[in-house]
């Protein structure tokens, strides 16, 4: 009765080579693979959401938060998910004007609720405008805004 391994692995004269191979796999490659996985996922929650985004979202909500506060916190937290992109501000400004026409004076209070400052939080402004354009079902003419570029 034998085991289904090649003779070169089982023979006694090759024990140092086999031991070195096991040491390399289990002592080097396996810890490196686990470490790469562990440190690569540290910035994500178990659902794959960026930890900073989740923290901003949940810290900005309380028991009395209404729909406007929830959407504002979504706009704030989204800025950590995407890398900083330089967008065509004229297309974004056009969409901003369409939302202003649709919502009227409420749009200004919503923007202040989301703490949007175009000079400081361009990603937050972009996310907030695109989020409200989606919620209001406004058509987005710009192909770069539709793609997310």
Break the fold down into its secondary structure elements and pairings.
Blueprint: H1 7-10, H2 15-40, H3 51-59, H4 67-78, H5 89-103, H6 106-113, H7 122-135, H8 143-147
GO biological process, one term: SRP-dependent cotranslational protein targeting to membrane
GO molecular function, one term: protein transmembrane transporter activity
Keywords: Membrane, Transmembrane, Transmembrane helix
Question: Could you explain how this protein is built, in words?
Answer:
This protein is an all-alpha fold. The protein folds into 2 domains: 7-40, no CATH class; 51-147, no CATH class. It is 62% helix and 0% strand. It contains 8 helices and no strands. It has helices spanning 7-10, 15-40, 51-59, 67-78, 89-103, 106-113, 122-135, 143-147. Helix 3 (51-59) runs antiparallel to helix 4 (67-78). The longest helix has 26 residues, at 15-40. It is elongated. The model has no long low-confidence stretch (mean pLDDT 81).
Properties at a glance:
single chain; 62% helix; 0% strand
């Amino acid at each position: 009765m034998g085991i289904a391994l090649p003779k070169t692995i089982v023979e006694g004269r090759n024990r140092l080579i086999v031991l070195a191979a096991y040491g390399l796999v289990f002592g080097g490659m396996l810890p490196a693979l686990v470490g790469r996985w562990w440190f690569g996922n540290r910035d994500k929650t178990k659902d794959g959401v960026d930890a900073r985004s989740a923290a901003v979202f949940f810290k900005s909500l309380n028991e009395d938060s209404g729909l406007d506060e929830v959407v504002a916190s979504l706009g704030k937290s989204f800025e950590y998910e995407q890398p900083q992109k330089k967008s065509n501000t004229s297309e974004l400004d056009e969409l901003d004007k369409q939302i202003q026409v649709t919502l009227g004076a409420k749009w200004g209070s919503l923007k202040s609720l989301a703490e949007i400052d175009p000079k400081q939080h361009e990603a937050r402004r972009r996310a907030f405008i695109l989020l409200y354009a989606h919620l209001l079902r406004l058509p987005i003419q710009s192909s770069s805004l539709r793609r997310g570029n």
